[in-house]
Amino acid sequence: MRGRREWVADGLIGSSLLGPVLIHQVMNGDALRIVAALAVTAGLVLTLRRRPLVGLLVVLLGTLADGNFVFALPVMSYLVGLRTERIRAVAATFAVIAAGGTALNFTVFDTALGQWFFLAMALLLLGVFPWLAGRYRAQHARLVSAGWERAARLEYERRLVVREARLRERARIAQEMHDSLGHELSLIALNAGALETTPGLPGKQSAAAGRIRESAANATDRLRDIIGVLRDDDETDTGTVEQLVDRARAAGMTILLQRDGEPSAVAYPVVREALTNAGVHAPGATVRITLTADAVEVVTDAADRPPVHGTTGLGLIGLKERVRRAGGTLTAGPTPDGAFRTAAVLDRAAPQQPTVDAELHDARRRTRRSLAAAILTPLVLVVVTAIGYYPFAVAGSVLDEATFDALTTGTPRADLADRLPDRQTPGDKPRGCELYTDGNFPMAEAAYRLCFTDGRLTSKERLK
């Protein structure tokens, strides 16, 4: 339905643009020209939506056959700016039109310099300026669309606030359970492991301590599975790495900490997860922690007893995603010497995703640039064209006003040869008359007309 409406709209636009051409041809009664005008109208309608630049070329070429095509030129140029984003292609097209039209007018049609200047100004005012206005209108429409999109996103985020408020309490509870209860279970497993390896302990008690260690490890994994759906990994971590290390050392863990600079935001969760896993799966092993501004590494040496099996590894999976969202990478796995290494590295140069405000600011900047281009570009082109045209128009054709006033009728033309300019100003003039300019800017139009009969000055006239 929408496509049909677009075709109808384009059909009305095309028919309206070429209406003067059709009326002119119908009044002339030339059937062949009428059919050609209808064919051009149909082609224009077909190109308006997807190839407006082609339609512009059709209209420009049509002016060679019928001057009424010029009425469609500003509208087509505006549609090109509105519907075409390729700036270079359109600018190159206008440059080719200007160069080709100049060559055609001077070599084929023998156009006068003043008329060429008029045609050049017409191309700027009827072609370039509407195109730039269309580009500004398109940029403004994109700015409005970006503004509505930003408003829609903000409304969507506002609706999420209510949902997040309901989930935040559950996330806080889950965070607290994971940090405190999970860590305490790992310390229970660590103490049970120490009791299990106590020299002189009866076998039954040693086995019981081992079962306690395994049960605590399994309970930690099950706790992680159960509350994993409630935990919010984006919650701000409370506490420091040093506090984690102090609590673990108080429980009997051997930890070597090396710090160089302020650690990154992901250091706390990485160390917490590594210490929890070390306490559960490698009790008695030495843990080596290295902290820098962009990286954190935790290496757990090989344990002196078999690790507890059955862990799901969901903690590391969630941690890896959290590090990735912070702009880094996480690696975790055994080393060749039997240790277990967990390391996170942040990429400070990672590109940030543009925010909605940044996108809206960029759209505003492009719109302002399009408006400035729509106003300044035609003015600059007019000035440049006028400055380039003026020297050719006035070269050798300027008649001084004092000289004109001193001319008297009846003077032979031969006696005026050294007082009159070597070149005349182009323009329509009666037979036997000469035109000269006073150097007026920018058109350098004819200001004086001298008429001669039988080689003598018979009349002089000031035209402006």
Automatic annotation (TrEMBL):
Annotated organism of origin: Paractinoplanes aksuensis
Sequence intervals crossing the membrane: 31-48, 54-80, 87-109, 115-133, 371-392
Enzyme class: transferase
InterPro entries per record: HATPase_C_sf, Sensor_HK_TwoCompSys, Sig_transdc_His_kin_sub3_dim/P
Protein name per Swiss-Prot or TrEMBL: histidine kinase
SUPFAM superfamilies: ATPase domain of HSP90 chaperone/DNA topoisomerase II/histidine kinase
Molecular function in Gene Ontology: kinase activity
Domain Signal transduction histidine kinase subgroup 3 dimerisation and phosphoacceptor per the UniProt entry, residue ranges: 169-234
PANTHER family assigned to the protein according to its UniProt record, in alphabetical order: NITRATE/NITRITE SENSOR PROTEIN NARX-RELATED, NITRATE_NITRITE SENSOR PROTEIN NARQ
